[in-house]
Amino acid sequence: MTLLAADTPSCYSRFVNEWFCWQYVDDRQDEIVDALVEHIGITLAAIVFGLVIAFPLALVARRMPRLESTILALSTGLYTVPSLALLPLLVPFTGLSATTVVIGLGLYALTILVRAFLDGLRSVPDDVRESAVGLGYGSGRLLVRVELPLAMPVIMAGLRVATVSTVALTTVGTLVANGGLGNLISHGVQRDFRAELLTAAVLCVLLAVLLDVLLVLTQRLLTPWTRGAHS
Amino acid sequence: MNLFAETWRYLLDGSNWTENGGFLSRLVEQLLVSFTALGLAMAIGLPIALWLGHLGRGGFLAINISNVGRAVPTFALLALLVTLDWPGSGYFGPYGRAGLATLIALGLFALPPLITNAYVAVREVPLEIRQAADGMGMSGAQKFWRVELPLSMPLVMSGVRLALVQVWATSTIAALVAGPGVGRIITEGFATNTYSQGMAGAVVVAAVALVLELLAAVAQRLVDPVPRARAGSSPNREEQLSEPRPKVAEAADTVGR
What we know:
By secondary structure, chain A is an all-alpha fold. Chain A has one domain (29-221): MetI-like (MetI-like fold, Orthogonal Bundle), CATH 1.10.3720.10. Chain A has eleven helices and no strands. Chain A has helices at 2-6, 22-27, 29-63, 65-80, 83-94, 98-122, 126-134, 139-169, 181-191, 194-222, 226-230. Chain A is elongated. Chain B has one domain (2-10, 27-256): Orthogonal Bundle (MetI-like fold). Helix content of chain B is 77%, strand content 0%. Chain B is built from twelve helices and no strands. Chain B is elongated and about 70 Å long. Chain B starts with a helix and ends with a helix. Classes of the chains: A mainly alpha, B mainly alpha. The A-B interface holds A 76-77, 79-89, 91-92, 115, 161, 164-165, 167-172, 174-176, 182, 185-186, 188-189, 192, 194, 197-198, 200-201, 204-205, 208-209, 212 and B 1, 3-4, 67, 70-77, 79-80, 82-83, 165, 168-170, 172-173, 175-177, 183, 186-187, 189-190, 195, 198-199, 201-203, 205-206, 209-210, 212-213, 257.
């Protein structure tokens, strides 16, 4: 009995169970960092996966207007499927792995990104495109040197939306045991472990904000000509 | 694949639908909680957003609330609400704390798309139309009820549609914190390694999501004062403001997508 009394309960013991507890963060640093790294890894992989598929899809949709509505309808339909239902549907193909989460979240990001690419490319003024053609630009060089840079603000806006929502959705990956910080949240709910739960939730939001800020800075670097117009 | 066959068998088994905690009772639970939350969010969010849009104030807040809503993981908020000491009893079941926590979280996540779209919808009504309304001697309230509101309906409805999709997705995730709904069938399947059950639940949730989206799309078309297919609907209303209306419809398209 004296042993229990002598050992003053830390703020995350079962008896105290405080919401904020630095000692928890200190003691379980490794676990938290691991979860955070997994979270970032899944998020980035999903975004890259979405980008890699969205770009050619958008180009195809632009080239063939008849396919555009089909592509948009399919991706919108996909977006309405709740994440908790999409992951089980992927399990037969990729099993209980991080790949399942990456593909699922990538498909959500895809919807936003295809729209962003299409809207962005469409926002390029026709006279600019025509003068580039008049200067002798072929379609490849026109896309890379003229259209993409001018479409960048719209594309980056879409990328920001996709990134922020992917960070949040990654937590659902806990269903297949690969949810990054979501695993901590789910463990925290099951054990009624408040410090763990809140730490993971706060880290999630901070990560989303951080990535968003990074993207804004990247956009400033990529499109220096917009700075004067906006600020 | 064997798993597909098993899933199909699970879906065809009638007892999986009718038993206590089967698909039907879970569906009723989830639909009830989803539509209650959506209704509450609409009752709170829409009047505020429409009013702000009418005044032309608070735009920064109305637009940015969507960004905030996106950054907060639904799962984390649900988990926080369930672990709190309030509201509801300590009973950790579908109608106890988890149910109330689900309802609150759903309502909160339905608000951002509702508010942003409703605000933008009213702001998007062209200046000429407002000025015409002023010139006709309409009071502020008349202008709102008879000009701005009808013209902004399609975009408001697209906000409701987004909110519905969001609410359905979130109410599924509620199963991860033992909340009500079909998501429970999915999480139970995964917890007991019966993946066919998890898959079957996922199929049902996805199918209902698509049906809800379709219904919302139909509803959105019905409230549009400028129906895209012009044939057949309310010709006399069309005459009164026929000139500037297409502009609003276009604007609604670019924003509401």
